[in-house]
Write a structure and sequence with these properties.
A hairpin with a 4-residue loop joins β1 and β2. By secondary structure, the protein is of the alpha/beta class. The N and C termini lie far apart (74 Å). A nine-stranded mixed sheet has the order 5-4-3-6-7-9-8-10-11, with helices on both faces. 40% of the residues lie in helices and 14% in strands.
Length: 700
């Protein structure tokens, strides 16, 4: 097991494990791995933790996981074995109990292969991908098999396998490209728009997320077909679906779909597909005369259009396919002829743009293509284009003091889902749709058959009224005028006659933040830790960008890896002082009631003063001094880093601190007014530019 595994076992952070290795000479020595990532024996670590009083009992699921990752055949092969055993426990509990109690290890591994093959064949068909479960393969797995069976009796077979598979996928993020639950559920909901799903195919099924999502919109009997080129992933997905969907017929195959289609005669109700993007070696040279290219032979650079046509070929007439596509597939010139034929024949029904970050790769806004197997040749084809990003953006309004009501680059997934589903249902039901500028529109296919056949929604959606229209621009103008007047009133006076002789600089006795922390006058905490349970509610995260810009908390906590307890974040309180440690700027922010409760983000330090001894505004004000920041900063690397403990402030009585604090608070109010004026000014200028150029605002 690795240091990360030890940390999970003991319920601590990895830094604590490193500390134990340094401080305790009797800490177990590595038995494998590398110098930077050593591996330790589970038995030795468990005993040491017990001797130190740091572990009462290892949870059963953690014990199974550690045995699984340490298996000689590798984690994926061990997970196949465990999944097959869990399926046996689920399908034939009485047979398992009898075998578990009567057989020793040799008998167990000798009898299991035949029993497992019988269960797998009955549940997954004779050509199932969970191969290689021979007596020799199970020779080193008796303890793992027993532990997995025991875990199934306490947690349930499906939950036990879900935990182990989820942990395996989390531990290998670069090896697997997963479809997030939100987009997967949306794709299944779009596919089921015409009615419940009976036969569903995912020809690049990966970990099975799309097929699992289809169960929520299924009719009995349900048949799930999947195929993946990775034999391990195909096997693990088959076991997942068999355990999660006990009433469904599951057929998963391991092969390259485009070169060796496992379901050539299938006529599915729905195809859900997240194809591999930008593949050059998809079979272009071998598949030139394949009958699936009904809409044109895809170019070597258009692998996604090969997957589109494969999906259409496996649909029944009237069946629906939903594919997650890169945005380039809607506009590349090399694919324009195929896109044109998809439009002419009414196969491509909708292109829906998702916000950037909805699914990996997270830096680009992916598209959903909704296709239908043409059935009525007399129908006049139309295309629905939807852009969910504008509808899902947070409000751009500002609260008093210049703080945006929502963070940057965030979106509400429920709004994204509702925007896409409502548009598709209206369009699919009536063939037309009420146009919403900037969000959705129905276009006749013939209007799109230009030189490029560019189907990107943003190119065909009329822009929304500039900044909300003239009425909204008038409100922005009035707010800006009032804010500028308020800014003028708040402009601080230097307080000294510029012509008078300047007094000498004050010489106070100084202390440091580090000394105040040691004396108990303040508590010092660093940000960045903290996770949240998958799907659970979590506080917003105050980032360094928010602190520097005077913004509301805009970050989010990462999800805890499956099966690991969430880490408690540091939550800010009213009166805390937050200091960014990177960037070289002199910034300190006093937390107000609107920000209290947020989690402290990375590269931030929290100072929580004892208000009996230390005024928060006095503290924040003196920490912002330029000279103070310069003497406490490190310039040893390419980024300037602030050592908050070295920041200085004067030793003053509390009454004098409060005099300074009131002055610093007034400066903060003025600074917030300036920020608000700047944002409103930018909004007004851009809105007027947009209004003048789209005709919604007259030049005079």
């Amino acid at each position: 097991m690795t240091a990360a595994g030890i940390a999970r076992l003991a319920g601590v952070g990895r830094a604590a494990v490193s500390n134990w290795r340094r401080r305790h000479a009797d800490f177990p020595k590595p038995v494998g791995g590398t110098e930077t990532s050593p591996a330790f024996a589970l038995r030795d670590v468990e005993q040491w933790l017990r001797d130190q009083g740091k572990l009462a009992e290892i949870p059963a699921r953690e014990r199974v996981w550690q045995q699984l990752v340490g298996h000689p055949a590798g984690a994926a092969a061990a997970l196949r074995q465990v999944g097959a055993v869990l399926l046996l426990v689920h399908e034939r509990p009485a047979a398992w109990r009898e075998l578990r109690g009567a057989a020793d290890d040799t008998e167990l591994t000798g009898v299991l292969p035949a029993m497992l093959e019988s269960v797998l064949t009955g549940r997954l068909g004779p050509e199932h991908p969970v191969r290689g479960l021979t007596r020799a393969a199970l020779a080193h797995s008796a303890a793992l098999v027993r532990a997995a069976g025991d875990l199934a009796t306490t947690d349930g077979a499906a939950a036990a396998y879900g935990f182990l598979l989820g942990r395996h996928l989390d531990a290998n993020p670069r090896q697997y490209t997963l479809t997030p639950p939100g987009p997967a559920a949306l794709m299944a909901e779009l596919a089921a728009g015409a009615g419940p799903l009976g036969v569903v195919l995912d020809p690049a099924c990966g970990a099975g997320g799309l097929l699992a999502a289809a169960r929520e919109h299924s009719a009995a009997p349900l048949t799930l077909h999947g195929q993946d080129a990775d034999p391990d992933l195909a096997a693990l997905t088959a076991l997942r679906l068999a355990l999660e969907a006990p009433g469904a017929e599951v057929r998963v195959r391991a092969a390259d779909t485009l070169r060796a289609d496992a379901f050539p005669q299938l006529a599915a109700d729905a195809v859900l597909l997240h194809p591999p993007f930008n593949e050059r070696n998809w079979g272009h040279d071998e598949l030139a005369y394949d009958p699936r290219w009904e809409y044109g032979f895809p170019a070597r650079t258009e692998s996604e259009l090969a997957w589109v046509q494969h999906a259409l070929a496996r649909l029944r007439p009237g069946g629906t396919a939903v594919l997650l596509m890169p945005p380039a597939a809607a506009s590349r010139r090399s694919g324009r002829r195929i896109r044109a034929d998809l439009l002419r024949r009414g196969a491509l029904r909708a292109v829906i743009a998702l916000p950037a970050g909805a699914a990996p790769p997270n830096n680009i806004p992916l598209h959903l293509w909704v296709l239908r197997k043409p059935g009525d040749p007399s129908a006049v084809p139309h295309l629905l284009v939807v852009d969910t990003a504008p509808a899902a953006k947070p409000s751009a309004s500002f609260e008093q003091g210049g703080t945006p009501t929502a963070g940057r680059d965030k979106f509400d997934w429920q709004t994204v889902r509702a925007t896409a589903v409502d548009a598709w249902r209206d369009f699919d039901r009536d063939g037309g749709i009420e146009e919403v500028p900037g969000v959705r529109r129905s276009l006749a296919a013939i209007d799109l058959l230009g030189d490029d056949v560019d189907l990107a929604p943003a190119r065909h959606l009329p822009p929304p009224a500039a900044a909300g229209g003239p009425a909204e621009l008038a409100r922005v103008h009035d707010r800006l005028t009032a804010t500028l007047a308020r800014t003028t009133a708040l402009t601080p006076h230097p307080g000294a006659d510029a012509t008078a002789p300047q007094p000498p600089a004050a010489r106070w006795p100084l202390t440091t933040v580090g000394e105040l922390a040691r004396s108990g006058a303040l508590v010092l905490r660093t940000g960045g830790a903290g996770t949240t349970a998958p799907g659970g509610a979590a506080p917003a995260v105050l980032t360094d960008h928010d602190v520097i810009g005077g913004l509301a908390p805009s970050g989010t906590l990462p999800e805890t890896p499956t099966g690991t307890p969430p880490e408690e974040p540091v939550l800010v309180q009213e009166g805390d002082v937050i200091v960014p440690v990177l960037g070289g700027g002199a910034t300190a922010r006093v937390v107000d009631e609107t920000t209290a409760g947020a989690a402290l983000g990375r590269n931030l330090t929290l100072l929580r003063p004892d208000t009996v001894a230390l005024d928060p505004w006095f503290l924040a004000g003196f920490l912002r001094g330029t000279a103070n920041n310069r003497q406490a900063s490190s310039y040893a690397s390419t980024a300037t880093r602030l050592d908050v403990r070295r920041l200085q402030l004067p030793r003053l009585p509390l009454a004098d601190q409060r005099r300074y604090g009131r002055r610093f608070a007034d400066l903060a109010t003025f600074e917030n007014a300036l920020r608000l004026a700047s944002r409103l000014g930018e909004q007004l200028v851009q809105g007027l530019h947009d209004g003048l150029t789209d005709g919604s605002v007259a030049p005079d």
